[in-house]
Design goal:
Length: 333
């Protein structure tokens, strides 16, 4: 799974521009599923059909988002400096000094107007991108150009560091789950969604097209295990988190119960998750059409939305185990 994660996190796919990530996903899953299609919003929808003669089959949707946060050029001045706006949760404190790779091939660095106070984070409106240009004419950027943070993947023992672990780690977990899933009694849709970071825009239409009975979003979650962090129970390396609540989603208690009972039966470590801020695709899926029984399996992640997000390899492996355990038995939901 590590080489796959390296490839996925070193690929650029800001919201709405997930093409390069989608190509990798399609290539990886093609031989593992019965059907695959790409819908109008660019979601990859791959189906693994139930084994012949399977009883008590449920239609289950799993979703991980392909997109990542990024920047979009809003203005280029006479000297060739580009102002920009955010794509998703691009925060000032993480953006200063960042290197940006644009989808048109241009590179730049994020610099800032004069520092009035050394310690206070600047808003994005006081930052600009320097591409090395000397005038508007030779600037490789135009209004509307899209980029993402450039940062290579690396490992610190079991702690894996990269940009866009949110949510390429979820994408890798879904692909790895497919690799290990020989057969299932369920009709399972592995969905790789678009535009999550700008307000879970891809997952709803994907769910509408599938009309699942049960859905599980697979995404990262914040932790409470760093100095002076929020008082939250989630820690790196203690297992996948079964979400109970975040700011956009109350997980269906029946799905929570199914996930926890399955983890306990299979002796897979897990954590109970109440996330104080942020949400996932589960929010959109739950309220699609006549409604879907929805939960979330979360991968604990430090420094979410920075260019150096950290996850623990054991949590990824245990997430795959838990999904496999959920998909290989009848679901009492
Ligand atoms: Co995110
Ligand atoms: Zn995410």
């Amino acid at each position: 799974m590590k080489p796959l994660l390296k490839t996925l996190t070193e690929t650029y796919g800001p919201s709405g521009y997930e093409d390069a990530v989608r190509k990798i996903v399609l290539k990886e899953i093609k031989s593992l599923v019965d059907e695959v299609r790409v819908d109008a919003l660019g979601n990859v929808i791959a189906r693994k059909k139930p084994a012949q003669g399977a009883k008590a089959s449920k239609k289950i949707m799993l979703a991980a988002h392909m997109d990542e946060i990024g920047v979009m050029v809003s203005h280029v001045d006479a000297k060739g400096f580009a102002r920009f706006t955010n794509i998703g949760g691009t925060f000032g404190r993480y953006t200063l000094g960042a290197r940006v790779q644009f989808l048109n091939g241009a590179k730049g660095i994020v610099a800032h107007d004069r520092l009035e106070q050394m310690d206070s984070p600047l808003p994005l409106s006081k930052m600009y991108i320097d591409t090395g240009a000397t005038s508007k004419k030779d600037c490789p950027l135009k209004v509307g150009d899209v980029g993402a943070f450039e940062r290579p993947y690396f490992e610190m023992g079991d702690r894996l560091v990269a940009k866009s672990m949110d949510d390429r780690s979820g994408v890798a977990v879904l692909i790895e789950t497919l690799r290990g899933l020989k057969s299932t009694p369920h009709d399972v849709y592995f969905v790789f969604t678009t535009q999550e970071e700008v307000g879970t825009r891809g997952a709803g239409p994907a769910a509408f097209g599938i009309d699942p009975e049960i859905a599980i979003a697979v995404d990262v979650t914040g932790t409470g295990d760093t100095p002076a962090s929020f008082k939250m129970a989630m820690e790196l390396g203690k297992g996948p988190c079964v979400k109970i609540r975040d700011s956009g989603h109350l997980a269906d208690p029946r799905v929570v119960e199914w996930m926890i009972a399955t983890a306990e039966r299979a002796k897979i470590p897990y954590q109970r998750e109440v996330l104080l801020f942020g949400t996932t695709d589960a929010r959109a899926i739950q309220a699609t059409g006549p409604g879907v029984l929805t939960g979330t399996l979360s991968i604990p992640c430090r420094y979410v939305h920075s260019a150096s997000e950290i996850v623990d390899y054991n949590d990824l492996k245990n997430s795959v185990k838990l999904l496999n355990a959920l998909l290989t038995k009848a679901a009492n939901v």
